Amino acid sequence: MKWAIVHRTEYRYATPAKESFNQVRLQPMNTAEQTIESFQLNVAPATKLQHYSDFYANVVHHFEILEPHPNLVIESILQARTHPAAALDEEATVFPLERIGEAARSLRFHDFVNPSKYVDVEPLTWRLALDAIDSATDTWQAVQAISRFVHGHLKYVSSSTSVHTHMQDVLAQRQGVCQDFAHVTLGLCRAVKIPALYVSGYLSTEAASATHAWVEVFLPEIGWRGLDPTHNCQVDQSYLKIAVGRDYADVAPVSGHYKGTQDRKMDVAVKIETEQ
Question: Distance (Å, rounded) from C-alpha 50 to C-alpha 60?
């Protein structure tokens, strides 16, 4: 699938901000499942952009604007292609769940089987994970059961949470948006030692005004596989990955700090065009 995306974020301050330092995670990575053909990042007021790869290999642009400015505009223009691997048979048995703890002992999985800022693996989470898994004895079957449970247990309600809502608060109110579905799924998977990471990206079938979120789980002898608990489905060519991490805190599209008023407004607009 071919993609053309324009992602625009604008901050408007009640009084000019100054000494603004920002990090932007909007440039997708090249992987076996996607090819980035072009990427351009524009910032106004104009300033010098630099970039680096973070701990999870995400591309991070950073910049500073020292002089006072009444607004800040960050716009990315992207062209890409997605060509994912074939979906995994839903009835497949991949790896015994009782042995997943052995596979997850590697240091490379440490961050993805432990708690993070918005995700926990407390005893109550573990108990809920066991209920969700029910009688599944295979890791892939258990992951699908967790995704089905989260999809059925939570109600999607726009603006019902913020990007800083913890998974336990989501479970308490039983509603949220895509990042909440992802956070709960991560907690349930990690509680039973299934390595699981957070993914931010785009979904072509949604008239979205922001990024989408889903999860990837590690299956021994197969690798990382994407699941979208919001829609209870496997990730296919309709998904374009931007960044990965332990949870939303690691992949925020724009983060930073500045001096000045806290009275500000933010507008985000995402235009996605795709072609088979």
Answer: 8
